[in-house]
Specification:
This protein is of the alpha/beta class. It contains nine helices and seven strands, in the order βαβαβαβαβααβαααβ. The structure holds NADP nicotinamide-adenine-dinucleotide phosphate.
């Protein structure tokens, strides 16, 4: 097993891509620490992992709160002894044309998608630096690379995650820590299931592989980036998008 004796923190783990990442890492022997704001769903995911023989703990935390994140990270390190992996996956959308976008819609998306990444990374980095090892994977988006109508807030946050990833990768490389981003294309999850059929068709038309991705297909790439096999990869953005952007 790739991750026996490793402790992996995954945010946004109660559904979709985060849940698939947690399940995938658990199957490789990692003790998974699940963070999300949806308490019941989160606990159900943790229970499922435990009932399948894995080790999991759930923490109901808002990643946009610096205070909550700092507190819970200290608690995790105290209870579980270490953090080897951080996967910043929690994210939201509040789509609107810029003309109609409310300040709250801008602030909400930037707070969760970008400040959340800052909060968790800052909370774990000293710990990882003192251990001279660690892996951070940030979930960006194809939209952070190419933009999208109605998503100025979301694409700014996801492009910001890429800049953050590259800068932090440079800061901590000498301590043996790698920081990478994964940029999914259209993945079938609760986030995308309620999009209008016309939007889904628009995406399908520009995906050369002619299907939407699965959460597991993103999780496999995250697993690789957390493994020893990826030790020489840092500051990179790996696309998982069915060829939508080449
Ligand atoms: P999802 O199904 O909506 O799951 C995201 C999870 O994060 C939800 O449980 C959500 O709770 C939780 N969350 C939201 N705000 C949070 C906060 N402040 N603190 C803690 N947890 C919070 O989304 P997904 O499709 O799996 O996406 C996962 C990541 O991949 C996101 O960063 C997303 O931007 C990115 N991504 C997704 C796609 C795609 O096509 N699905 C494509 C590119 C990138 P609520 O449901 O209550 O908000």
């Amino acid at each position: 097993m790739l991750f026996s004796k490793k402790v992996s923190v995954v945010t946004g783990a109660s559904q979709g891509i985060g849940e698939a990442i947690a399940q995938t890492l658990s199957k490789e022997g990692a003790e998974v620490i699940l963070i999300d704001i949806q308490k019941q769903k989160l606990e159900a995911v943790a229970q499922r992992i435990i009932s399948e023989g894995g080790k999991a703990a759930a923490f109901c935390v808002d990643v946009s709160s610096f205070e909550q994140v700092t507190k819970v990270t200290d608690e995790i390190i105290e209870k579980h002894g270490q953090i080897d992996h951080l996967v910043n996956n929690a994210g939201i959308t509040r789509d609107n044309l810029l003309m109609r976008m409310k300040e709250e819609e801008w602030d909400a998306v930037l707070s969760v998608n970008l400040k959340g990444v800052f909060n968790l990374s800052k909370a774990v980095i000293r710990h990882m630096m003192s251990r001279r090892s660690g892996r951070i994977v940030n979930i960006s988006s194809v939209v952070g690379l190419m933009g999208n109508v109605g998503q100025t807030n979301y694409s700014a946050s996801k492009a910001g995650v890429i800049g953050f990833t590259k800068s932090l990768a440079r800061e901590v490389a000498s301590r043996g820590i790698t920081v990478n981003a994964v940029a999914p294309g259209y993945i079938a999850t609760p986030m995308t299931e309620n999009l209008p059929e016309s939007t889904k068709k628009m995406f399908m038309d520009v995906i050369p592989l002619k299907r939407f991705g699965t959460p597991e297909e993103v999780a496999y790439v995250v697993k690789f980036l957390l493994s020893e096999e990826s030790a020489y990869i840092t500051g990179q953005v790996i696309s998982v998008n069915g060829g939508m952007l080449m």
